[in-house]
């Protein structure tokens, strides 16, 4: 059970300070002679004070254990990361090691920007300690099966759940929601503009479509495409769901300026006492703890759909990848292996309030807000939503097109029907083209997570 792999103390684990052996060409693998010191660059794409502090400490520990390797850390704001890495990949100036958002593989792998880590991963001494989810889904289903290679080592697991102001619910005599219908009802009832209170932390800007689509897939049975590659956005129930979810904003159950909210703004809306519900991931726990009284809030499992099933997104938060053009690939893998030891991964997961990638041999249970995420993943009625696809155009879709289309509707510049047609046409064209070029690919499938 995932409850036994959650954040606890892993005892008796040795730090891995040397890279595993690998097969194949040695081109780009050399770290220099034993007396030659090499420098590798590392790019963090989601910098924050906590992350910078952690990476500075872990880099210092790595350099102490590996005096022949120096790590130079750089950062780039999340909103700029994809474009920056795309330009660096094209100009062959990517950093040696970088945080990799899993969805970016659809763009970077076909472009030849990333070095396969398959041989190193297969020979890695800690491989058998990974959870079933990481081993079977993150590494095999989502990488080797799709790309024939391993291209990133996951940093931690992440899943969505619902942050709620339980004190607001108590004041309104409302039960904590377990279904989408209860979420819509609570969004309206918790809203009181005179008190600057709104029911839902709406995300209208970057990645806002993901929040809308989370509800749409609850009515499509977690499916994203028909068997022929046609997007489910053309289904009548998808249109109805799109309108119903975006009505949270249009009916004033979310702040007016939330049309411009991205990640930081929606989190701040919840932690500052403006919104009563927030769909977010484990990393928000730290921000909520720092700003809200413990008795005022909690995290509850993701709501179930009308069919009684819970359709969730879960997987690696980010990963660690190596540039194809790195001149120090052996040193780069050595650094990734160090970051990924069970002991260091636990430190990272605790610091970032995420779920470790390794089995918890200590068997400690989880208390408090993290339990909502654990319960969501452990529930036998939980299923992983089929993804949007593995076509190269997904980066273009995610990094601009999808949110621009939704905003046109929110601003009354486009009908709901036209919005879903534009989104559905893009996805259908790209998915069917991918299936034509990859006859054995099929469409993405709903899967049952194995969490133990």
Task: Tell me what you see in this structure.
The longest helix is centred in the C-terminal third of the chain and has 22 residues, at 416-437. It is built from 16 helices and twelve strands. The strands form three sheets. A five-stranded mixed sheet has the order 2-1-3-11-4, with helices on both faces. Strands 5, 6, 7, 8 and 10 form a five-stranded mixed sheet that branches. It has a two-stranded parallel sheet with strand order 9-12. It has helices at residues 49-65, 78-90, 105-111, 118-123, 132-147, 166-171, 180-189, 208-219, 236-250, 263-271, 284-291, 329-339, 342-352, 370-378, 394-410, 416-437, and strands at residues 38-44, 69-75, 97-100, 153-154, 157-164, 198-200, 275-281, 298-300, 310-312, 314-316, 319-322, 382-384. It folds into two domains: 38-158 and 315-365, 3-Layer(aba) Sandwich (D-Maltodextrin-Binding Protein, domain 2); 160-314 and 385-437, 3-Layer(aba) Sandwich (D-Maltodextrin-Binding Protein, domain 2), CATH 3.40.190.10. The protein is α/β, with parallel strands linked by helices and 452 residues long. It is globular.
């Amino acid at each position: 059970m995932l409850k036994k792999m959650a954040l606890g103390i892993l005892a008796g684990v040795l730090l891995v300070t040397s890279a595993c052996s690998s097969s194949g060409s040695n081109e780009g693998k050399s770290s220099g002679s034993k007396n030659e010191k090499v420098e590798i660059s590392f790019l963090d794409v989601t910098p924050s004070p906590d992350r910078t502090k952690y990476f500075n400490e872990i880099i210092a520990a790595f350099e102490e254990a590996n005096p022949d390797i120096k790590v130079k850390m750089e950062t780039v704001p999340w909103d700029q990361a994809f474009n920056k890495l795309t330009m660096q990949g094209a100009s062959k100036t990517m950093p040696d090691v970088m945080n990799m958002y899993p969805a970016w593989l659809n763009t970077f792998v076909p472009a030849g920007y990333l070095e396969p880590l398959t041989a190193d991963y297969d020979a890695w001494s800690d491989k058998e300690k990974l959870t079933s989810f990481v081993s079977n889904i993150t590494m095999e289903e989502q990488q080797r099966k799709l790309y024939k290679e391993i291209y990133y080592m996951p940093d931690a697991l992440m899943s969505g759940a619902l942050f709620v102001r339980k004190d607001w619910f108590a004041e309104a005599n409302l039960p904590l929601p377990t279904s989408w219908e209860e979420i819509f009802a609570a969004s309206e009832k918790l809203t009181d503009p005179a008190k600057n209170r709104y029911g839902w932390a709406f995300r209208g800007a970057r990645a806002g479509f993901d929040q809308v689509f989370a509800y749409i897939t609850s009515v499509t049975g977690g499916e994203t495409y028909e068997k022929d590659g046609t997007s489910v956005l053309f289904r009548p129930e998808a249109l109805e769901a799109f309108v119903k979810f975006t009505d949270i904003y249009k009916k004033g159950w979310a702040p007016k300026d939330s049309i411009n909210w991205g990640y930081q703004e929606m989190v701040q809306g919840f932690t500052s006492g403006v919104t009563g519900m927030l769909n977010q991931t484990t990393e928000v726990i730290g921000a909520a703890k720092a700003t809200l009284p413990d008795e005022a809030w909690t995290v509850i499992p993701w709501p179930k759909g009308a069919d009684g099933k819970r359709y969730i997104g879960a997987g690696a938060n980010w990963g660690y990848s190596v540039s194809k053009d790195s001149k120090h690939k052996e040193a780069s893998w050595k650094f990734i292996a160090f970051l990924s030891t069970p002991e260091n991964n636990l430190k990272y997961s605790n610091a970032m309030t995420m779920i470790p990638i390794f089995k918890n041999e200590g068997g400690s249970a989880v208390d408090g807000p993290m339990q909502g995420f654990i319960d969501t993943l452990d529930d036998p009625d939980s299923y992983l939503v089929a993804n949007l696809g593995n076509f190269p155009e997904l980066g273009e879709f995610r990094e601009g097109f999808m949110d621009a289309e939704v905003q046109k509707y929110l601003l009354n510049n486009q009908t709901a029907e036209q919005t879903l047609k534009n989104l559905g046409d893009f996805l259908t064209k790209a998915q069917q083209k991918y299936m034509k070029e990859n006859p054995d690919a099929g469409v993405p499938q709903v899967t049952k997570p194995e969490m133990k």
